[in-house]
Amino acid sequence: MKDAPPNLVQDVGYLPNVEALDYQYMISVVKRVTAIAARLNSKPVHLF
Description:
Elements: H1 6-12, H2 24-39
């Protein structure tokens, strides 16, 4: 992306000098929800 034309970089909102966000917490939430969803039809699950 650093070599892309400036108008393309602006259109997609790419910020070359910004560090990438850490999505580890969101990934862990998705993994937990996926595990619950897989068993949802076999027996009731408390979500809280």
